[in-house]
Structures are given as C-alpha cells and as structure tokens.
C-alpha cells in the first residue's frame, strides 16, 4: 500500500491555503442510469457495479509525477494546441459539434436523434456525478501540489485530480457514439484518447488520472449502450 498527498491539505503554488473545492456535493446528485443503495451502485438492470478504477493507494505517484515533469519539459507546440483546444470551455462543448456532424453525415432520423441526444446527455450527467464521487472520496492531490515549481500549460482546476473528468467524459462518449456510428469507431477512439491525453499535456493531471478515467467512463458508456440495445429501437 502506497500513500499519497491529499488535495484538500496542500496549497497550490503561490497560495497560502488549500484550494476552495468546487461543488463537492455533486458526487451525491441524482443519476439517470445508475442507482445507489448505501455504498453500492446498481446498473439499470439492478446488477451491482464494481467500477473499473484503481484505488489510488495502489498507484506509484512518484513515477506518475516524473511523467508529468518530463511531459512539461518536452512539451511541443502541437501538444499545447491540443491542451488548449480541449480546455476551451466544458469538454462537451468540443464533443457536441462532432456529434452533430456525425448525425448529419449519416442522416440520423430526427426521432432517433432526439433519443440519442437524450441518452448521451443523461450519460454525461451520470459520468460527472460518478467522477465527483471518486474525486472527493479519494482526495488525490494535483501535480502542482507534488511539485510546486512545476510550470503547467493551463491553470489547475479547484477540485481533486483523480480521476480526470475530461477522461471520464471521453470514455463515456466513446461506446455511445460508436454504437450509433460504428463506421466512425476508430476516429471516435482516437479523438477521445486525445481528449484524455490533453490533460497531461496541460500539466494539470497525472497520466494515470486519464488512463483510469477512460476506463471508468467506458464502463459507464457500455452500461448505457446495454440499456439502449435492450430497448431494440
């Protein structure tokens, strides 16, 4: 068992007090597809869920910090562009235009488009809630709290780092979009991988935040796809 630094206990560089948390209660908000019974999560078919995400006590955070430090030292203009592009507003702001482009390209009927968008946006809500549940449950520090001299591309958000919300959103998006637009599966995969990796390029997340966020998000997306498929519409 390894120990790790707690986000809520360490100031960001240039600050005297630990960061003020943003919506820490969001991890308890209602979800559309996932139910809770005490500490247990249930899918739409009432099956117990074991989330596919590592306990942070099993992660080598010193090695993760070295990856971030090396990434910041060797950052390229293209990586900076990717970091800034995916950080321009909510991550959904970057994904929704891709969604509408695919709907138009493949002529998704208006009725099916409405259902698809409803399922997708509801899934994103659940992805945020689950992400916030784990962020504040585990309270994992950000790279800049491990290395106060770290020069990041973007400002570090004011909530715990693990898992990355961008990565969970991207992971959740991938199976849902791939179900509706199987012809675009490879492109969708690459775009969502880029979205997650952008947070390492930004210097605000460890690589494992992104890797485990993708895993968690894909699991949720697969749960939603199983429900969609069961309705046979």
TrEMBL record:
It comes from Fictibacillus phosphorivorans. This is Phosphatidic acid phosphatase type 2/haloperoxidase domain-containing protein. Residues 129-225 form the Phosphatidic acid phosphatase type 2/haloperoxidase domain.
């Amino acid at each position: 068992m390894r120990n790790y630094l707690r986000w809520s206990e360490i100031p960001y560089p240039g600050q005297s007090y630990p960061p003020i948390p943003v919506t820490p209660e969001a991890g308890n908000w209602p979800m559309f597809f996932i139910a809770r019974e005490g500490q247990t999560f249930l899918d739409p078919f009432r099956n117990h869920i074991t989330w596919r995400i590592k306990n942070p006590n099993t992660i080598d955070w010193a090695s993760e910090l070295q990856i971030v430090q090396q990434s910041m030292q060797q950052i390229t203009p293209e990586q900076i562009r990717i970091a800034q592009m995916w950080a321009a507003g909510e991550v959904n702001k970057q994904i929704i235009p891709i969604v509408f482009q695919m709907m138009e390209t493949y002529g998704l009927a208006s009725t099916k488009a409405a259902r698809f968008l409803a399922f997708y946006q509801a899934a994103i809500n659940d992805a945020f809630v689950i992400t916030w549940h784990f962020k504040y449950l585990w309270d994992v520090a950000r790279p800049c709290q491990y290395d106060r001299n770290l020069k990041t591309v973007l400002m570090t958000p004011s909530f715990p780092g693990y898992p990355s919300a961008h990565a969970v959103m991207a992971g959740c998006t991938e199976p849902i979009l791939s179900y509706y637009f199987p012809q675009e599966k490879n492109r969708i995969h690459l775009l969502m991988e880029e979205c997650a990796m952008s947070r390492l390029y930004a210097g605000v997340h460890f690589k494992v935040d992104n890797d485990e966020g993708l895993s968690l998000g894909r699991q949720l997306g697969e749960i939603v796809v199983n429900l969609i498929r069961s309705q046979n519409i």
